[in-house]
Amino acid sequence: MVASAGEDRPPATTVRLDALQRLGFQLVEGEVDLALPVGSPADAGADVAVEADIAPLREQAAQAFAMSRFRAPWYAADASGRFYAQWIEKCGARHLRSSVPDLPPS
Q1: What does the pLDDT read at residue 99?
Q2: Are both 16 and 46 inside the same structural domain?
Q3: Domain that holds residue 3
Q4: Within this chain, do residues 13 and 55 fall inside the same structural domain, yes or no?
Q5: Minimal CA–CA distance to 72: which of 5, 30, 11?
Q6: Which of 12-16, 21-25, 86-90 has the lowest mean pLDDT?
Q7: What is the pLDDT of the chain when averaged over all its residues?
Q8: In this predicted model, what pLDDT tens digit does every residue of 30-76 receive, in sequence order?
Q9: Same domain as 48, residue 27
Q10: Residues 23, 72: Cα–Cα separation, whole Å
Q11: N or C: which end of the chain has fewer CB within 10 A?
């Protein structure tokens, strides 16, 4: 079975993959990088995140990627949400640390 982009919604695709696995097929993972050129944050209609944005972004990431490769039966049912929420938190914290200018000694 080969599914082209947009052919199936992720939940339908994973149901098919699970059925094929039960028949002895093995999933071979691939990767696609999609890029969209954006000149500046203003062009994208985006704002630079601040510390107060991390908690809501964690919640959104936990829900948005529920059907990722980090799913049952290979991982716990809630693992995908936790992985992506933690990833957002770590990236946000790293970004905030790198964007704070060094203060001169007092």
Answers
A1: 63
A2: no
A3: 1-31
A4: no
A5: 11
A6: 12-16
A7: 76
A8: 777 878 777 776 667 777 778 888 899 999 988 887 677 787 778 88
A9: no
A10: 17
A11: C
Quick check: is 37 in a domain? no
- Which residue's structure tokens are 């959104």? 60
Which amino acid is present at 18? D
* 88/58 same-domain check: yes
Q: Is-contact 16 8, C-beta < 8 A?
A: yes
Q: Amino acid identity, residue 22?
A: R
Centroid of chain to Cα 76: 17
- Token match 């936990």: residue? 62
Residue type, 78: D
Place of tokens 């993972």: 29
How is residue 86 written in tokens? 């933690």
What local confidence, expressed as pLDDT, does residue 96 receive? Answer: 74
Q: Quote the CA–CA distance of 82 and 65 in Å, as a whole number.
A: 10
